[in-house]
C-alpha cells in the first residue's frame, strides 16, 4: 500500500482573494525581504572593512 499522506502542492487561499490584495502582499513581503538583505549586506560590509570586527562575538560578553 503506497503512502497517501504526502503533500504535492501547497496553496494559500487567503492571499488569492483579490488582485489588489495579492499586490499588497507581494510588495510588502518584497520590501521586508529587501530590507533584510540590505541589513545583512551592511553587516557583511562593516565586518569586511573593520578588522576589529573579525574577533569572535563572545568577546562582547566579557
**How many helices?**
1
Mean pLDDT: 82
Number of strand segments? 0
Helix-strand makeup class: mainly alpha
Helix-strand string: H
Main sheet characteristics: none
Helix content: 40-55%
Q: What are the low-pLDDT stretches, counting only 5+ consecutive residues below 50?
A: none
Total domains: 1
From the spread of the alpha carbons, the general shape counts as flat
Rg, nearest Å:
21 Å
Provide the β-strand percentage band. Answer: under 5%
Gap between N and C termini, in Å? 59 Å
GO molecular function: G protein-coupled receptor activity
GO biological process, one term: sensory perception of smell
GO cellular component, one term: plasma membrane
Organism: Bambusicola thoracicus
What's the topology here?
Layout: H1 19-49
Molecular structure report:
The mean pLDDT is 82. The protein has one domain. The chain has 62 residues and is mainly alpha-helical. The protein is flat. Helix content is 50%, strand content 0%.
Name its key features.
single chain; 62 residues; mainly alpha; 50% helix
Amino acid at each position: 500500500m503506497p503512502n497517501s499522506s504526502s503533500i504535492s502542492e501547497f496553496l494559500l487561499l487567503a492571499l488569492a482573494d483579490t488582485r489588489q490584495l495579492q499586490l499588497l502582499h507581494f510588495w510588502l513581503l518584497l520590501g521586508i525581504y529587501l530590507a533584510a538583505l540590505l541589513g545583512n549586506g551592511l553587516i557583511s560590509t562593516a565586518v569586511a572593512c573593520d578588522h576589529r570586527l573579525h574577533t569572535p562575538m563572545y568577546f562582547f560578553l566579557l
